[in-house]
Amino acid sequence: MAAPASPPPDDPETLKALLAEERAENERLRQIIQAMQRHRFGRRAESLPEDQLLLGLEEAEQGEAATLAAADIEPASRATRVAERRRNRGALPAHLPRIERVVDPASLVCPCCAGTLHRIGEDVSERLDVVPAQVRVLVIRRPRYACRTCEEAVVQAPAPARLIEGGLPTDALVAQVLVSKYADHSPLYRQAQIFARQGVCLDRSTLADWVGRAAFALRPVHERLLEKLRASGKLFADETTAPVLDPGRGRTKTGQLWAYARDDRPWSGRDPPGVAYVYAPDRTAERPLRHLSGFAGVLQVDGYGGYKALADRGGIQLAFCWAHVRRRFYELAQGGPAPIATQALERIARLYRTEAEIRGRSAEERRAQRQEHSRPVIAALEPWLRETLGQLSQKSRLAEAIRYALSRWAGLCVFLEDGRVELDSNVVERAIRPLALTRKNALFAGSDGGGQHWAVIASLIETCKLNGVEPHAYLSDVLTRIAEGHPNRRLDELLPWAYASAQDLKAVA
């Protein structure tokens, strides 16, 4: 028989404490529900990305263009619009090829006296044109030559090296498939449909074979890229999920793509920017320990506890991310009136205002400005957070946000003493976004090997982007050089930033 329920306490203080605890729990649950609703139905980003904003304005701009086109029917309006377009369009890039077309009058006979007209000048205008992508067949003929005297010697040039021996594609075509898949996020089945529209039937498995062979050939370049990044004094690190097909269970499993990035441009560093992705089947702390073997310096990360093992090993100092701290207060402020969270956001905003002013300066200048402007903000923020935490229910989400910041306080303050350190890890988070787009379109990798191929090719493509190198030209050239037997002792020549320097030298010459 169940014991009878105990009667409610009569002590007013006890009742008051129980009521306060119940209200705090209700408030915590309400905040959780609001967070889930925002996650499901609302905008997740703290700020609307510029490309998304422009995407929303496209329809309005198209409607305006249609209206102006209708108004251009009137001769006077047409002349005004043409003058405005010519004034605002700017000059076309000088490196583009120019195809000249001369438009002469129908007759060079003078309409007045029937004499011959002579040229006194010209008007030149430029229009941007495009030649649509076209699949073509590259025919290689290798004539054989024999001597008429001895009739024994036969001479023939050796066949050009191929990335895929006995295969159909040129290195440029393989590079196009790689760029379409990993830079333009077009899955192989869509690429097969594009080829089919030009009458070329390529099975998706054939394209996958090309990608796998190219990834295998590029693997030494990827390893060298990661090695060069590990030799830096400061890196960013982050990770994202990589769904991988798991045939044995009939569903997908969750792998991880770890990203290690370097970008010294905010403090005028000399090392070129780069990012290397490494695929792993899990998210254990063993992975970054292995990936960053030999690295010593500052590692800027989010709040994931797996990186603590790196700091414990020695030689690595962890710097944490203020954007992750800010995000927790932002979520609370978005859910309704939250004066404490709003005040925390205002204090953090002062740090970001200082960062905007010192971006691009030397590390020492950045450190001096932070000591003058950011240190007082930090010095006042910590005691305020501790005092506020003592006045809150420890179960509330606001208390969780404050504890998140205080538990990582030492790593959050590293930027004050080191001008190379950024306020947040947004550099590597931006490098993660292309992986998310590829993942969204392709849904999953076919195997752990596919995840490794993804990491190899995406590393080189994204590093190209960071260094202003056109990925297709780079991959086409590198694959050709590898097929022709480029020695491994000269792998530095195949890195994207070396390719950028070589192209600059060619342009100067």
From TrEMBL:
It comes from the Bacteria. Residues 459-497 form the Transposase IS66 C-terminal domain. Residues 109-151 form the Transposase IS66 zinc-finger binding domain. InterPro entries: IS66_C, Transposase-related, Transposase_IS66_central, Transposase_TnpC_homeodom, Znf_dom_IS66. Residues 28-100 form the Transposase TnpC homeodomain domain. Residues 167-452 form the Transposase IS66 central domain. This is IS66 family transposase. It comes from Methylobacterium nonmethylotrophicum.
